[in-house]
Design brief:
Layout (H helix, E strand, L loop, with lengths): L17 H12 L10 H10 L5 H13 L5 H6 L2 H7 L6 H17 L2 H5 L4 H10 L5 H10 L10 H10 L8 H12 L3 H17 L27
Helix pairs in contact: 1-12, 2-3, 2-9, 5-6, 8-9, 10-12
Bound molecules: iron/sulfur cluster (SF4).
Iron/sulfur cluster (SF4) binds next to loops.
């Protein structure tokens, strides 16, 4: 598909402007160097722990897992649940997340760990991830993109909000429809998907916030379809 790079965005935006939105954000913020994790396994653990919590809390939990020599699948799978829960307590819902981590690691070990899983086609791997208790589409796609380098676009609340404000989507589309929108429009491109998701998170946290969005000076303001009253919602 031809890129819109270098073109000026005009109202209204459509799915065909997705590449230009990426390029505009990249020019504004620069490369984000995601995912913030030392190893693929750490990325997987981080993707589970980041559910419903800030990344700073995940970092504290990861540090505690490392300090306790528990940041490996065998240690997590066989850990005493209370001990594991205490180590990841900063991320909240720690008892639930301890069970999720243990279930994930038991599956991960049974399936031969990353080396064996890398051989699996993306559709099959995604199906298996989604079958692990507590792994939903966003977590599965975080793992697929950032730990397995698969061309799967991650959809989160930030992505949903930005696309709706830009007028590309309504905002209430199903997860899979939004994922297909990116993947079919941009083509399979791991590096692009990696950077794009990270840029959306950066933009949403710094400027396109749920409440009191900082629209003045936003690089996307000229084409944004934001409604009046957005800052008060
Ligand atoms: S103009 Fe405002 S609502 Fe639109 S993308 Fe920028 S920050 Fe978000």
């Amino acid at each position: 598909m031809a890129s819109n790079r270098g073109q000026t965005m005009t109202k209204p935006l459509s799915r065909h402007d997705l590449r230009t939105v990426h390029d505009t954000l990249l020019a504004c913020y620069g490369p984000q160097h995601w995912w913030p994790g030392e190893t693929p396994f750490e990325v997987m653990v981080g993707a589970i722990l980041t559910q419903n919590t800030a990344w700073s809390n995940v970092e504290r939990a990861i540090q505690q897992l490392v300090a306790a020599n528990h940041l490996n699948p065998e240690a997590i799978a066989t850990a005493d649940p209370t001990t594991l829960g205490a180590l990841i307590r900063p991320t909240g819902y720690f008892n639930i997340k301890a069970r999720r981590l243990q279930g994930f690691c038991q599956w991960y070990l049974a399936r031969g760990q990353r080396e064996a899983l890398m051989e699996m086609p993306t559709v099959a791997l995604r199906r298996e991830l989604l079958a692990v208790k507590g792994i939903g589409p966003e977590t599965a796609d975080d793992i697929l993109l950032y730990a397995f380098a698969r061309p799967v676009f991650v959809i989160d609340a930030y992505t949903r909000r930005l696309l709706a404000r830009l007028g590309i989507t309504r905002g209430d589309e199903p997860y899979e429809a939004l994922r297909a929108l990116f993947e079919e429009t941009l083509g399979a491109n791991v590096a692009l998907f990696n950077e794009y998701h990270a840029l959306i998170v950066r933009h949403a946290k710094e400027r396109c916030r749920k409440r009191q969005a900082l629209c003045e000076g936003c690089v996307l303001a000229a084409c944004c379809q934001k409604e009046e009253g957005i800052t008060a919602s």
